[in-house]
Amino acid sequence: MTQSYEVFLGCAIPSRFNNYESSMRVVAKELGIELIDFDGASCCGTVVLKSIDEHSWLSMSGRNLALAEQRGHDIVTPCNGCFGSLKDTAHVLHDKKQRKAVNKVLSSLGLEYTGKVKIRHFAEVLYDLKDEIAKKIVKPLDGLKVAFHPGCHLIRPSNVAGFDDPELPNKVDELLELTGAKSVPWGLKLKCCGSPLLIASEDVATEILREKMKSAKEAGANCVVTNCPACHTQFDVQAIGLKDENDESLELPALFITQILGAAMGLDSEQIGFELNRVSLDPINDILGL
Amino acid sequence: MTESWGQFKSFEGKKFKALDSEFTAKVSKLIGGEDLTACFQCAKCSAGCPVSDKVNIQIHEVMRMLVFGLKEVLQTDMVWLCTTCYTCQERCPQGIDITDILFGLKNMAYKRGITPSGYVTSAKALYDIGKLYSPTEWEREDLGLDDVPELDVSETKKMLDKTKLLKLQEGM
Ligand code: SF4
Ligand code: SF4
C-alpha cells in the first residue's frame, strides 16, 4: 500500500543539507512512499523558540500541525529537531487549557488544531519497510563500520518520541546493517552531540563533539551516520579540522542514513548528493563505489 | 570551567536570606513542573548529563535550588548550557520532567534579559522570516530539488504579535 505524507523539512535541511532531502526523496520514491510538499510551513519552533517562550513555540508549531490536519494528511520529517518539536507540541496540547490558548491564536488565521494529525520521523517509516529495503540491496557496503548517532529527540523523552528503546536503541542500526555495513558499539553513542549549544557556547559544543569523535574513533568506526541536520552540523561542519590533544585529526566521513541506504540500493549517486558532504569521503570511497 | 554563562559560579560563601516558597510554587506550575517537589536528590540526573563536567552548578543542584525557592537559579550556567537532551528526564526515578522545567526557567531568564545574545537574534529571525535560516538555492538547483514551499510571513507575524514574542523583554 502506498504511504503518503506531507514532508516537513524544517529550516536546517534546505539551508545546509540539501543532500539529505535529495537522498530522502530518491529512497522514498524507490520504496513507493509519496511525499507531498508542505505548503505554508514555517519553522517548527524547535528548542530555540521553546527556550524563548513556550506560548510562541506552541503557536508556531501548532500552526504547522493544524495546516496538515486541515488538508487531511499526516506528517513525516527527516529532522530530529522538527520531530521532537512537533511531537512535543502535540503532547503538550493534549492538555485542554493549553490547546484552548493555542487555538485562540490560531483562530485569527482561520485554523484549529484538534489532535488528529500523526507525526513520524522518516527513520520510523523506513523501519516499517525494512523487509522491502532488504530485498532492494544491490550494492552491499561491506567494510563500512558505522558509528550511528541516533541523536536525542528521536528517542527521548520516550513517552513523547515513542520510537525506540531510549537506553538501547537498535532500530536504525538494524536498518543500516541491512546494507552489509556494521553498526559498531561506541561508548558515547547516546550522548548528545552538543549541537543545540552552538547558539549559547560554541566552546562547550565543541568540547562535547571532541569527546564524541574520540569515542567513535576508538570504537574503530570509519564513518559517522546521523538522521538529523542539527546533529549533522556538528559532525560534517564543526568537526572539520578538529584535533585531539596529540594533534591527530578527529574527522570522520559523516553521512545521512538515507545516503547509506540509497547507495546500497544502487540509486542515482548524484541525487544521493555525496558531492555536498563536507568532510572528505576519501577513506570510504571504495566501499561506497565512488 | 567555562566563562560562557551565568553570574552564579558557586555556592561557596553564599548566604541566602529568604527561601521564597512563591517561586517554588510558580515553577511547579510550569509545563512539566507538577512533580518538582518530589526530588529526593539522588543526583541520577547529573550522573548522565552531558554537561555536568562543564558547568558550575549541576542539574541536581538546580533542582535543589528550585525546591528551596532560590531565584538565583536563573543566574546559573546550567540553565543555558542544558543541551535539551532529555537524558535526565528519561532517567529520573521520581518521574520529574526535568528538561521541561528547564525550558520554563529559560523562558523566565529570557524575559529578564539573562540569555545568550543568539537567542535574541533568533527571536528576531523567527519573527521576520518565520524561519531560522533561508534555503541555499544553488544547492537545490544542483540537486534538481523544487523550490521550498512558500510561507506567507504575514501569518506567522500575526501570531507572534499575539504572543508578543518581540516584547517579552520589555520592562526588564
Ligand atoms: S534524578 Fe530526579 S530525583 Fe534524582 S536528583 Fe535528579 S531530579 Fe531529583
Ligand atoms: S536535558 Fe539538560 S540537564 Fe538534562 S541531562 Fe540533558 S543537558 Fe543535562
Provide the fold topology.
The complex is a heterodimer of chains A (290) and B (172).
Chain A: E1 3-7, H1 12-16, H2 18-30, E2 33-37, H3 46-52, H4 54-70, E3 75-77, H5 80-92, H6 96-107, E4 119-121, H7 122-128, H8 130-135, E5 145-149, H9 158-161, H10 171-177, E6 182-183, H11 202-218, E7 223-226, H12 229-238, E8 254-256, H13 257-264, H14 269-272, H15 285-288
Helix pairs in contact in A: 2-13, 3-4, 4-5, 4-6, 7-10
Chain B: H1 21-28, H2 44-47, H3 59-67, H4 77-81, H5 87-91, H6 98-111, H7 117-129, H8 137-143, H9 153-162
Bound molecules: iron/sulfur cluster (2 copies).
Residues 39-45, 60, 63, 92-94, 96, 98 of chain B line the site of one iron/sulfur cluster (SF4).
General description of the model:
The complex is a heterodimer of chains A (290) and B (172). Chain A contains 15 helices and eight strands. In chain A, the strands form two sheets. Chain A has a four-stranded parallel beta sheet. A four-stranded parallel beta sheet of chain A has the order 6-5-7-8, sandwiched between helices. In chain A, strand 7, helix 12 (229-238) and strand 8 form a beta-alpha-beta unit. In chain A, 46% of the residues lie in helices and 10% in strands. In chain A, helix 2 (18-30) crosses helix 13 (257-264). Chain A has two domains: 3-122, Glutathione S-transferase Yfyf (Class Pi), Chain A, domain 2, CATH 1.20.1050; 139-288, Rossmann fold, CATH 3.40.50.11810. Chain A has helices spanning 12-16, 18-30, 46-52, 54-70, 80-92, 96-107, 122-128, 130-135, 158-161, 171-177, 202-218, 229-238, 257-264, 269-272, 285-288; strands at 3-7, 33-37, 75-77, 119-121, 145-149, 182-183, 223-226, 254-256. Chain B has two domains: 21-111, Fumarate Reductase Iron-sulfur Protein, Chain B, domain 2; 117-167, no CATH class. Chain B has nine helices and no strands. The longest helix of chain B is centred in the middle third of the chain and has 14 residues, at 98-111. The model of chain B has no long low-confidence stretch (mean pLDDT 93). At the A-B interface, helix 1, helix 2, helix 3, helix 4 and helix 6 of A face helix 5, helix 6, helix 7, helix 8 and helix 9 of B. Bound molecules: iron/sulfur cluster (SF4) (2 copies). The site of one iron/sulfur cluster (SF4) has 14 residues of chain B, from helix 2 and helix 3.
